[in-house]
Amino acid sequence: MDFKDLNDMLFSNSSSQESYASAWDDQLLEEDLLDEAMEDELILWDPEDSPVLTPATSGQDTDSYLPSHVTETDGEEILLTSSDSTCGVRDKNWVVARVGEFLERIVDALVENSGQLSIILKTRSGITRRKTEYTDQNGLMPVPKTMEITFPGGTTQEAWKFTVLVRILELIHKCLIDDVTMTKRDIYYRHPNLFLKQSVVDRYVDDIACTLSISRSQLNVTAAAKGLVAGNFTIWRPDGTEVNGLHEKEGILIPKIQASDTLNLSSVHWILIIEKEATFHSLLSSVPWNFMSSQGVAMTAKGYPDLASRRFLRQLSDHSPHIPIFAFVDFDPDGIAIMLTYMYGSYRLAHENVTHTGLPALNLPDLRWLGVKTHHICHTSATESITERGTLADTQGLMRLTARDRKKATQMLEWDLCKEDNPQPKWRTELQAMLVLNIKAEMQILETRPGGIATWLSKQIEVQQDPALGKDGAALYPFQPSSDDGLLF
Amino acid sequence: MSKQYLTLHTIDDAHPSDIFALAPTSTQVLSASGSSSIRIYSTTDPEFPLVQTLEGAHPLGIHHLATAKESPKAASAGFEGKVKAWGSDESGEWRLEGEIVDQNKPGDVWAIALSADGQYLASSSINGKVNVWSLNKAEGFPKIREYETKGSFGLCVDLSQDGRFTASGHENGSIYVFNNDTGRLSHSLAGLVSPIRTVSFSPASKLLAAAGDARIIALYDVNSGEQVANFTGHSGWVLTLDWSATGEYLLSGSHDSKAKVWRIETRSCVATHSHGDKPLWTAKWLPRNVRSEMFALGGGNNAISFYREAAG
């Protein structure tokens, strides 16, 4: 695990960053960090400084949260889930009722001094795709692990965990009752010295959603948008405001599309997902983008996609299912894992993929892989066959796999999605080619092509959707005339 | 002066994914790919039928497969990091003989090669180490030689037919020849700077051919360590090399799907064939039988093609 990952994990506001079942060591480190942070900083965290834990809605006695009020007698176990898992609609009222009821029971238990409280949370953090035993028989969703938080706990850490959980539940309850949406970042900033770091909030929020078998947005909690989007789309809000993807030269933050908004995608012929922000900006500042932007939408979630970005894409796709969506990612194990996250979601956040009707909500299984693939790199090298001197790694932007890359690629070969009986063997093939050649390449390798990445992308998109273009007679890019449509020139 | 080779037969969909290795015996060709099984095709029947499948040999796919020239032995290396030894009986049926488990952690073994008598297996590894194992089953496949290099990924390895030498090609362009009798480095050959993806000893163990991303095939004298020839002509990375049984010809395959046949005497390319538009991972001569000289190609188009020398 390199420093960049560590950095992402610790400081990205993202949080929303869904690491797609990343390597074990990553997770282990994550756990370690979490624990370490707790232990190190708990000393610093003086209860005196801590924010007053005022239940937002109930106005209960705050002191009741302190352990001194509780004498140890018989334990009580509180299950956040309702026993009738078959219950039909988990709508907003149901969620409010569950969360409220849960808070009430905690307070009751504390007031009655009924002894040790035990809260059972379900969690999917720390589950990887690799461990297939977590997958249920249908292979649809990993079975979550359970985690027990007791109060009063044996250690300060357990007390802290309990406080964090109760505080987050309170905030969520208030959001639901007031019908406002909070970002995970907002929650963190309410009590930074309690939560210590963003990932703590992220984890508990996800675990609460997982325990209730609902999606995080049903808790009225969203990730802070981190994605950027640009292109020829318009969203009209009921209040008359308009969001237009062409207004900002640099792209706009991924907007939230509400049910009451009107979406116009009539000029959009393709949607392009770009793994990295730098490449996204490079496309937007290129000359071909002037033409391309009138016909399509480009977006980036800056690495592993957050839920907000995935939801936005899914909403565009639901609105106009005929628009093809392409992925342009690095030729390395993470690039493929990022693409798979767009397509099938994060394994650890599988509860986000459930709608009221039980249909997957955010996946984009029809996403098409535009590049970078082995043969793109191969062609690059063929054009430079004269260059016999110097290593390829130097001249063509090819890089050797690191030990971590090789480990990750090998682990990915064990994922169900990359198993040999998977109907789409291309990921497996590309991962194996990567391992055999021991090379990887970033998207920027195509910048050396005539016209740069933008020209390459527009050509690839055109080739990919050729049949569609032929059918609806959509205009082509002036610099890529095709036989179907010579009218423009 | 060129030679004519005709396509004799093509097995389409010989494997469900990229064919990484072909390994012939006198009557069969064993094939390995990104799928988990080894498939064995008969080369004595004009239809080249599938005669056996070793299911689930390596669950994550197989990157290397080798057969011994004069003994019914084979070995395979998979992406999960294991090396398996196989043997066949008179009927030509293959079965697992065992796994090399001696100390090696998953990923430690990459390329493999077998001696002609099938008694020794040489391997390269990601950390640059080159090892030789005895395939003596009773002794549990002990490691008998361990050669240290400078730590660059050993992409390819070969054992000379007489078993005396081990050669390895590395990602940093290094080529080493080790003397198995003394257990020492014989030569560190003037490399090609870019990754070496294939090395191959001539049948008489006098010459070593090496090639890779430099797209040049270099010939070295094994005894002196001198470079004696350069073959240029491939426009893609050279991924595979194989000497004909007599040592007269060298077969090469490239990432740009081209196979070439080189005549050693004249140092010239005498034939070029294209195997679809995908990487050509493996190219092997078939042992000479009653029929004329034949070779087989396998690669990213999932097919195995057989070629034979045109009569006359």
UniProtKB/TrEMBL annotation, chain A:
- What keywords appear on the UniProt entry? DNA-binding, Isomerase, Magnesium, Metal-binding, Topoisomerase
Q: Which Pfam families is this protein grouped with?
A: TOP6A-Spo11_Toprim, TP6A_N
A GO BP term here is:
reciprocal meiotic recombination
**Cleavable signal peptide:** none
**GO terms for cellular component:** nuclear chromosome
- Show the catalytic activity: ATP-dependent breakage, passage and rejoining of double-stranded DNA
SUPFAM superfamilies to which the protein is assigned, alphabetical: DNA topoisomerase IV, alpha subunit
Annotated spans, Disordered: 47-66
Q: What positions does UniProt annotate as the active site of this protein?
A: Y189
**In the Enzyme Commission scheme, what number(s) does this protein have?**
5.6.2.2
Residue stretches making up the Spo11/DNA topoisomerase VI subunit A N-terminal domain: 160-221
Q: Which residues form a coiled coil?
A: none
Query: What are the required cofactors?
Result: Mg(2+)
Residue span(s) of domain Topoisomerase 6 subunit A/Spo11 TOPRIM: 271-448
Q: Which family does it belong to?
A: Belongs to the TOP6A family.
PANTHER family membership = MEIOTIC RECOMBINATION PROTEIN SPO11 (PTHR10848:SF0)
Q: What is this protein called?
A: DNA topoisomerase (ATP-hydrolyzing)
Q: Give the organism, scientific name.
A: Massariosphaeria phaeospora
Taxonomically, what lineage is the organism? Eukaryota, Fungi, Dikarya, Ascomycota, Pezizomycotina
From TrEMBL, chain B:
Q: Name one Pfam family in it.
A: WD40
Which GO terms of the cellular component aspect does the record hold? nucleus; protein-containing complex
Keywords, A to Z?
Repeat, WD repeat
Q: Where are the WD repeats?
A: 102-143, 189-230, 231-272
User: What's the name of the protein?
Assistant: WD40-repeat-containing domain protein
The yes or no answer to whether the keyword Ribonucleoprotein is present is no
* Top-level taxonomic group: Eukaryota
Q: Which InterPro entries match?
A: SKI8, WD40/YVTN_repeat-like_dom_sf, WD40_repeat_dom_sf, WD40_rpt
